[in-house]
Automatic annotation (TrEMBL):
Every HTH tetR-type domain range: 6-66
DNA-binding region, residues: 29-48
Gene3D superfamilies tied to this protein: Tetracycline Repressor, domain 2 (1.10.357.10)
DNA-binding is among the record's keywords: yes
UniProt keyword list: DNA-binding
Organism in which the protein naturally occurs: Limosilactobacillus balticus
Protein name per the record: HTH tetR-type domain-containing protein
Record InterPro entries: Homeodomain-like_sf, HTH-type_Tx_Regulator, HTH_TetR
Length: 169
């Protein structure tokens, strides 16, 4: 499942994730990335034209990774997704930090996992989507201390309390 990144790119990705804990994407500098990644500037420029190119390529990599996950597992359960997040925390931190969850809302949507009440509307769906995203983001930012099964149960219980049914039960 995991598409291997070249070693230098992996180091750069880890450095970017580390730097994004305290900075915004627009504030990243090549010199900072190289220092944190412990690489030369020439190594950075052998892989990317500049910071914008690096961010664009990281976004493309993450989107492809995410879409591949969904295409390979047509019957992907929400628990599978949570397990994948726990196993690939750095990738998903970047996924959320770059706001790719907003860009992928059509595939990263809970409608295929949930049965909404007949009287629900688009605002109900946005509310649910954002609430679930917030729980996942918090869990991820804490380093996934609870198991994927615990987070799945927590989210499922909250959704059931709101009158939604899990398609997979």
């Amino acid at each position: 499942m995991k598409k291997q990144m070249p070693t230098a790119r992996k180091k750069i990705q880890k450095a970017v994730i580390e730097l994004l804990k305290e900075k915004e994407v627009e504030q990243l500098k090549v010199s900072q990335i190289c220092r944190v990644a412990d690489i030369n500037r020439s190594t950075f420029y052998a892989n990317y034209e500049d910071c914008n190119d690096m961010v664009s390529q990281l976004q493309d990599y993450i989107v492809q990774y995410y879409e591949k996950l969904f295409s390979e597992k047509r019957s992907l359960t929400f628990l599978h997704l949570l397990k994948n997040i726990a196993d690939n925390q750095e990738t998903y931190r970047l996924f959320f930090h770059l706001h790719l969850d907003d860009n992928l809302s059509s595939s990263y949507h809970f409608s295929h996992w949930l049965v909404y009440p007949s009287n629900s509307n688009r605002y109900d769906r946005v509310f649910i989507h954002q609430a679930v995203n917030a729980v996942i983001r918090k869990w991820l930012n804490l380093g996934c201390p609870e198991s994927p099964e615990e987070i799945n149960a927590l989210i499922t219980n909250k959704l059931v309390a709101l009158g939604l049914k899990n398609n997979q039960q």
